[in-house]
Amino acid sequence: MRPGAPIVGVVHGAALALTVAGFGATLWNGVTEPGNALAFGVLIALGELARWGALPGDREPAPLAAAGALAYALLGEQAGSATTHGVLQIVAVVVAGGLAGIVPHIARGEGPHLDHQARRILTVGFAALCFQPLYNSGEIAERLGKGPAYAFFLLLLLVLTALCDAVLAALMLRARTGYPYGPLLREELRALLGIGSAVCATGTVMALGVAAAGLWALPVFCVPLLLTQVSFRRYAAVRTTNRQTIASLARATEIAGCTPPGHARRVAALSGAVGRELGLSGPELTVLEYAALMHDIGQLSLVDPVPEGATALLPAEEQRRIALLGGAVVRQTGVPAAVAVVVERQADPYRDQPLPARIVRTVNAYDDLAGAGAGGSLTALERLRLATARDHHPEVVESLARVLARGGVTGGVTPAPPG
What's the whole-model pTM score? Predict the structure, then answer.
């Protein structure tokens, strides 16, 4: 059993228990205001359907569904008339709409995103629990009215809900990957400034619009988020194309016979895992990934290829010359300048290197020394530990050892773009 399985099981179990309670209470008491429930259920289902073309690693694959769920949780009135649906009915409608929307995806062989569904159920339940009892009791109207104080209350509730979602997301990633919790949480909080802020804003505006104008406000306020979603998809597609282009360029050393097949990909994957182990996230991980992919590109400028591409076995001056040649090539590719700096400095003494260069140097040396067998891996780690006086940072070597002890690269986490 995976080390993080109990935590994931607890989160999924809590979401399942809340779902069962929601359906049970709704079936027992009947659906309150079925028109509202149907409208928001259909909106959530359409939002799930709109995840067609979503890219792997998207933090929120169905933003329209998430916004619709949040809007229903914050709905206190409909065209000036008070609503009386409760927290459990909200959960039932959100789950029913989500299940209806993912049926076509399941038919295509794409299983449901259980982590996303569990997070949505728990965070929507949290928002509804904070809002509905206070609104239905009249406390909000009596104490805050409809002015700026009410808007501030909604803003505070949105911040708390977003924090709840980020904490849950980071917790589940920590359980699944074993990476440090702090950097994962910082990355989740940073992601809230993107599509997360659009989801929160749209959900709130939907709830306020329905309160003033009725259900006809829903399709009107869906349009901005749909346009934002299309823009994010295009941006993500461009980002993926750039990464594929860099990966193809990195394969040039393999095609030319300068490095063993798969060397650049192995170094990039393992460098990313070590980087996360050391607390890197977001743009830093992307720079690390690109530099690791192209760390050997300087070998294309050599007249005589390095035997088996093992630069870690060369004299220090020759390693630096190849690194500088590689940096000059990288600067012509249009990637961020930080990538070229990492490539250029990967052969410097580790005390003079930035952390990404230390990681690339150590992981490259490990892949050069390890070979294919388990004995080679153990021997490579031992040689790296013996070289920590000058060539390899001890903390990087021990982080690499921890990653390898967990079985190598674990993930499901895609680095964010630089910028």
Answer: 0.76
